[in-house]
Each structure stands twice: as C-alpha cells, then as structure tokens.
Amino acid sequence: MIVTRKNIFTGVKRSLDLDVTQEGLNRWKNGELIQNVFPHLSVDEREFLMTGIIGEEWNELLEDEVRDEFVYEL
To answer: How many separate domains does the chain show?
Structure first.
C-alpha cells in the first residue's frame, strides 16, 4: 500500500510503498502499539508511519545535533 506522510519537522510529504493494510493502519490509529500491529516492518518504516521521517533525515538530524554539541563544548 502506498502511504503518504508529512515530515513533522520539515513539512515535506513523502510516499512509501509499505506492506500494510488499511485494517492494520486502523488498529494502530485506534491505539494498538505499532510494533504489535506491524512487527514485519523495519524500525525505519514504522518511524515513517509515526512521524513522516525517513532514515536519511534522521541521520542528518543526528549529525546536526552532534555538530551542535561539539560547538557548545568548545
């Protein structure tokens, strides 16, 4: 199923083809834990469902965070 989400930080919309069903999405939206509903998805795919953030964006955010911490420590 093609799932479109908006990145919670940047507002950029992306679509991924994920192995999910509308029934599973409804179960998750109704309060079931995402890892219980979609144990077959990777951590990055579940993160995309929750926040709209893809793995590469997390890597960039973390690099910026580490860079900022280094600057503050100087």
So the answer is: 1
